[in-house]
Amino acid sequence: MITADDVGGVHVKYLYHCPRQLWLYARGFRPEHLNDAVQLGTAVHELSYSRFSPVDLGAATLDHLDNQLWVHEIKHSAKRREADRAQARHYCHQLVRIGVDVQGAVLHYRNPRKTERFPYTDDEHQKATEDIDRVLDIVAQAESPPKLGRTSCRGCSYLDYCWSQ
Amino acid sequence: MPATSRTYWLTTPCRLRRQDDSIRVERDGHPPTFLPIEDVRDIIAAAEVDLNTSMMSLLNKHRIQIHILGYYGDYAGSFLPAETAVSGTVALNQMRLASDDEHALPIARALIDNAAFNIRWVIDRKLLTRSYGVLKESIAEATTREQLMAAEGNFRRNAWEALDTKLPDWLQLDGRSRRPPRNAGNAVISYINGILYARILSALRLTPLHTGIAFLHATMQRHRHSLALDLAEVFKPLFAERILIRLANRRQLKPQHFDINTNQAMLSESGRKLIVQTVRDDLAETVKHRTLGRNVSYDELIYLDALALTRTCLEGSTYAPFRVWW
Question: Where does this protein have coiled-coil stretches (chain B) (predicted)?
Answer without folding.
Answer: none
